[in-house]
Every structure is written in C-alpha cells, then in structure tokens.
Amino acid sequence: MTTIVSDGGRTLLILNAEDGTGRLERELAGLGWHTGRADLAAGDLPGLVERLADLLAAPGSPDRAAILGYGEAGLAALEIADRHPERVTAVVVVGTTDHDLAGELSCPTLTLPASGRESVVSAVVPFLAALDEQAEVPPHLPATLRPLTPALLNDAELLGRFREIGPVHRLNAEGAATTWILTGHAASTRTLTDPRLAGEVEITAGFRLQSDDPALAHKGDLDLITIDGREHARLRRLIERHLTPERVAALRPRIQRAADALLDAIPAGEVVDFLHAFAYPLPVLVLCELLGVPEDRRGQIREWILERLVTPPPRAHPDIDELLRDLIAARRESPSDDLLGWVVAAEGDGLAEDDLVSAARFLMVNGHRAPTTVLASGLAALLKRPEQWARLVAEPALVAPAVEELLRLVTPFPVTIARQVTAPIEVGGTPIPKGDLLGASLVAANRDPSFFPDPDLLDVGRRDNPHLAFGHGHHHCLGADLARAQLRIAFGTLARRFPGVELARDSRSLHYRQSSVRYLLGLPVVLRPDPHGEFAAEA
In which band, very low, low, confident or very high, does the pLDDT at 310 lie, cut at 50, 70 and 90? Predict the structure, then answer.
C-alpha cells in the first residue's frame, strides 16, 4: 500500500487502479489535480475499509481528497465517505452498483458499472471538473450550493453558507413532506415558539409523513421527540415536574460512583475504546439510577438500549414493558426515591400505568443519545486541541462552561423535529404555507457568528454561550439537567484522574457515522494519570 502525499491542492486517490489509469492521471494533471494510487489488496469489505482508514491516517496524507475505487475498493470508499465526511470531497465507484449509500452521502458520487470501465476517463474528468466550477463560484451566491438534503444536516460549513444567504431554506428529499429548515440562531429561537407551529402529525426522522396503514408506519423513531404533539404533551407532563434541578442534584453522588466504577475497570496505560468502555455504559447506568432499576435487571436495559435500538425500527420491546410494569407494581407496594416512585406517589390511584410505561421507555430512548455523543465526540474534540484539555485540567472550575461549549460544538441532535405550520407564516421574507413542515438546524444556530465569536473554535472558557443543543420552545429537552450533570461529572473526573489521557491514533482516522446524528464508531484512547507520559501509537 502506497501513501499519497499532497501539497493541499485538489487531490484524487485511486484505489486498486486498472488499465487506463495513466491516461486519467495525465488529463487530471492538466487540470491542476494531484493524483496518487493505493493498492488495498483483496479481502472482505470491513478489511478494505480498515486499510483505507489507515492509509488516510498515514503521515502526509491529504486532509481532503476525492476517491476513485475499482470494485470492492469503491464500496470501501463509500463507507469511508459515510464515516469521514470531513475527509472526502467526492467518490467514484467503478465496476459495481451493489450499494445503497451514494444517495445518502454529503459529497457528490459517481457510479460506473463494469461495462463502463473503458469510459472512466470520459466520465470522471468532467465529473471532477464540475467540482472545480462549483468551488470557483463566489460562496455567497445560491448557485454554489447543492440542494439541502437530510444527509447534509450535519455539515456545519455548508449550513453556514446557507445561513449567510437567508434564515430559512427548503429541504430537498425525495418522498419527504414539504419541509423548511431554519439556519440562524435568531430565526430559530423566534420561530420555534410561534403558536402557529404544532405537532399534530407523526413524522419520521427522514421528514416523511407516517403512513395511514399501521402495517407500513415507521415507528422506529417513536419517542418524546417524534410522537404526536398531544401524546407528547401528556407524557411529558407526567414526568417533567419530577425532573427538578434539586432531584438531579441528589443523583450526583450515584452518577459519580457509576463514573468512578467504569474508570476503575479501564486499565491505565493501555489502548481502550473509550466509547464502549465509558461513553456507552455511563448514560445507561444513569438512567437505571434515575428509574430505580435494580442491579440484576440492568443488563436487560443495557442490551435493549445498546443493541436492539441501534438499527431502526427496533425490535418489539414487550420484555422492557414488562420490566417497567414490575417496577411500578413494586412502587405501589413500597415507595422509593426514584422517578418511578415519585410519579406513583404523586399520581396515586389516578395513575395510568400505560402512560408511565411509555414515558419511562421514551425517556430511556432519548436519555442516552445526547450524553453518549457528547462524551465521545467531546473528548475527541478536546484531545485534538491539547491546549484546551490542558486548560481544563489546570482549572477544574471550567468544567461547567466546557460542557456547554462541547454541547454547542458537538450538537448531539443536529436538527429539531419538524413542526407542522397550521397557518401561513413568513420567515425572513420567505412565505411558509399552511400544511408544510418547519424545523431548525441546531448545527447552524450553534455556529452563528452573530451570537458566537469564532464559532468554529473550541473555547472551554466561553462564558456567553446561548447554544440550542437541547432545542428551544416546548420541545426543549426535559432531560437537559440530567445530561449536564453526568457530562460535568464525567469530564471533571477524567481531567482529575487522568490528566494525561491522549488519543491512541491520528485524530483524522477516527471513524464517524453520519446519519440523522453524526457520531463516533470508536474512540481509541490511553488513560494516563501522568500528563507527561509518552505513548507511541501501535502501527
């Protein structure tokens, strides 16, 4: 496998090159493109993806490149573009059409069937030249922007360009309901509280209206964010008044014990996947503490959240409902100091058990996502900026503003669930008709330079930080205080116990999955009590 080195210009990486590649390289050189070749060798797709990730992590590899792959190497390129949208500018797949990722990626893609191998040059050169033409148009012009699709709602740079053009834009997605996305902080906070927005329809994360046919309705994302507005309000009221700051504060010792126990189990000085060793299990343990799930039933909750809910729509969960009913029955017999106990005591004989089961289940579905994403992506962001991590280590009092800054930069939920417009409204001069859907890009709002100086920079000491990571209006995350508590404890404990923590590989090789939420697939780190300890990443 050869390393491709670029001086920062336009770069094409060619994988498993075939006959005719030399002609392609010569024509692209005439257009100012740098090209390089790499042989990934034969193997299964996961192996090819891993080898390509290692290649991109090698010293001297380009920060961003287009990738052309023949056969299975092309499929590996698509996977890398999905995991590493910040590294790949375009993908060309030659010789196979057996994939379904191309339409979901945030970068342009070109697929050429096996019969089209001889026409690679005639197809690829104009394809890449078109990228040049787009890049040369002034960025403030609407013509420079590709249509806004759901796959682009994690792209902070592109969303910033949309924000510069105007505060609201039409979402372009085949089969989606007519949806508009707000791209500014002021427009988002003002519009999301407009009483003419309602949640009277169920929609999926892909902005598709639910089918009237129960057999076809997609219920995989059914939770406190996406359910019908009236249902949401009823379930939210059931638990909201019990998640007070005082009760969250009372949970802090239990959260601290959980964090310490997880860190105690991680061997210092060895490479460990922080995501699986800490960022996944901690929010699950916190939810179990909140709901009062006994130790011998927590494995069942963890398996449900971390395995069965991974791929929507999740499998049925009657066993989880049965577990919750058992816990509720126990609270009817004997009061307990946990969320289920608080609700049972407050509602008395008027409690609708089905509602409490649904509310608890929905809280678990939503309650682990944001903390896990911020724990992993937030730590990665801090370790990529070692001076910021060192500042947090030296000034423990900065943990609260640091957590707010990580929430702003990571933005665990990139877009609010779209609300239905019940009467015509106007946003920034753009009319939004009755019946359309309207959501807000929290990524764009949280990078709005009119509210955040140097919005793309991580500053753990940022004090004025009105981010919208937990949403705004009546769908503001009801578990925000709980999420903040565990994030502050987690990062504060890490900084105190392992000030020398460091990434175990080049940060550019971290694998991300970009879907409705952008999240890490793994975070290899070494926990070191000594901030001056040395670590050489394994080859």
Answer: low
Average pLDDT over residues 265-278: 93
At 146, give phi and psi (nearest 5°). -70, 160
Which tokens is 215 given?
A: 């057999």
Q: What pLDDT is recorded for position 105? A: 66
pLDDT of residue 200: 47
Nearest by Cα to 376 from 524, 494, 523: 523
Residue 430: Cβ within 10 Å count: 13
Q: For 296-331, give the DSSP string.
A: GGHHHHHHIIIIITSSSSPPP-HHHHHHHHHHHHHH
Binning pLDDT at 50, 70 and 90, where does residue 46 land? confident
Q: How many residues make up the chain in this entry?
A: 539
Count the alpha carbons within 13 Å of 349 in the hemisphere toward its beta carbon.
Answer: 0
Alpha-carbon torsion angle 479, 368, 493, 290, nearest 10: 60
Helix axes 480-497, 399-410, angle to 10 degrees: 120
> Counting Cβ atoms within 10 Å, is residue 183 exposed (0-12), middle (13-18) or buried (19+)?
buried
What dihedral do alpha carbons 211, 217, 219, 223 form, nearest 10°?
Answer: 20
Rounded Cα–Cα distance for residues 20 and 9 (Å): 23
Query: What DSSP character marks residue 4?
Result: P
pLDDT > 60? residue 177: yes
- Does residue 224 register a pLDDT over 80? no
Give the amino acid at 64.
Answer: R
Please, what's the largest Cα pairwise distance for the chain?
80
Return the DSSP state at 147: P
Task: Pick 408 or 79 by higher pLDDT.
Answer: 408
Confidence category of residue 197, pLDDT binned at 50, 70, 90: confident
Listing from the earlier edge strand, what are the strands of the sheet with 271-273?
271-273, 524-526, 502-503
Q: Which helix (H) or strand (E) holds 90?
A: strand 88-94
The structure tokens listed for 117 are 């191998």
Distance CA 248, CA 415 (A): 26
pTM for the model: 0.72
Rounded-to-integer distance, Cα 53 and Cα 65, Å: 13
How far is the C-alpha of 388 from the C-alpha of 379, rounded, in Å?
Answer: 11
Query: What mean pLDDT value characterizes the chain?
Result: 81
| Choice between 21 and 64, residue whose per-residue pLDDT is larger | 21
**What is 9-46 written as a DSSP string?**
S-EEEEES--TTHHHHHHHHHHTT-EEEEE---S--HH
